[in-house]
Design a protein that fits this description.
binds shikimate-3-phosphate; alpha+beta; UDP-n-acetylglucosamine1-carboxyvinyl-transferase, Chain; 2 domains; 28% helix; 4-stranded mixed beta sheet
Length: 444
Amino acid sequence: MSEKKSQSQTFRLTPGGRLRGRFRVPGDKSVSHRSIMLGSLAEGETRISGFLEGADALATLAAFRAMGVKISGPDAGRVRIEGVGMRGLQAPTGALDLGNSGTSMRLLCGLLAGQSFDSILTGDTSLSSRPMRRVTEPLATMGALIHATEAGTAPLLVHGGQSLHGIRYDMPVASAQVKSCLLLAGLYAAGETWVREPAPTRDHTERMLEGFGYPVLRDGGWVGVEGGHGLQATDIDVPGDISSAAFFIVGACIAEDSEVILEHVGINPTRTGVLDILSLMGADIEIRNRREVGGEPVADLRVKSSHLRGIRIPERLVPLAIDEFPVLFVAAACASGTTILTGAEELRVKESDRIAVMADGLRTLGIDAEPTPDGMVINGGRLQGGAVQSLGDHRIAMAFSMAALRASGDIDIGDCNNVSTSFPDFPRLARESGLGIHVEQSPE
Ligand SMILES: O=C(O)C1=C[C@@H](OP(=O)(O)O)[C@@H](O)[C@H](O)C1
Ligand SMILES: C=C(OP(=O)(O)O)C(=O)O
């Protein structure tokens, strides 16, 4: 998707500043994807508010439109879906282009394995290099027929018309995408499909299935579904994305004289590792006005400047903060002492190799950052200016933007177009809250 754009964006940041303000970050990306998927398969009309109008969630929305689902919006975060029922999707006329979005591809792969028609899933260069065997292999044991490249990557050809049967699968990787993929395939499988994760991961699929009236089975560490039940349309209020809030949370921690209040942020306990890690580092974060909205816990977060200390990050928190490590590395660079991350090899197979790309950029900015196979060792220090690359990875672009708050010189960040996948409004919100950020367009 980003590759079709003829302009390449560079973020140019002036150093220093403080963060101030009270605002709401855009809707949760994981919840937005799932609201389109389950709303499309439900009986009746689903109304969504707070939907993330970012390219990733829009790719999921476009895929369901291409399969015959009538979806209106998004209009200021409002989407209406006329659900077609579990068997109502139609064969798309072309390939489903999922752009930069791993969540779309892995979840759809499971859902489409149970359909009566064939489909082809494609993506951009980054998505086409991400590992898909983690979903195609367990799906094959359920009876699915899926062709990938020899390297186990997209494009994926999903052959419909197979009869799926339930499995019990002990997942080798802690991945909500794998878990969700198998549960979605399980909706179409004979019998029960059970999965067990090596460590808890985000549980939005399970919560939302229950919100749509689909029974979810639990037994110790196992979670499962029985095929053949139906989904009833419901209204969904998507909370603010804690993964987007994380940039402002870290920004307010590291910048002097800062205070932000982030309203209506999703604080599902399977997503709040970033708050736990920052609190261990000494951050001043107050969780206010806790409430529950449509099956997901939500709160307002007040964050003030603080003196962060380096820590050894507990491995159990890694899956609960998996998308927040780029900005947590920036927090570690600004902390006193050493921060050690282990058990996070998954960071190497995200939109970029987030260990390598962040270590390179932090070193350019004068920080002693040592990448390891499954993490990083960062000695806090003084950030200087410099030109860093995001390699088309949205979270890296936004993480280095926040580093400018503590840098001694300008920071230029290349290849920032994909910030629009998860947080299209980031430059404006960042500028309004105090960051010296300018977006420069140049021909690719
Ligand atoms: O299920 C989801 O919505 C997601 C799961 C995570 O991926 P993995 O399951 O690959 O860890 C996360 O990194 C991604 O941004 C969204
Ligand atoms: C890893 C991410 O997303 P996805 O896997 O959906 O591309 C992310 O948003 O950080």
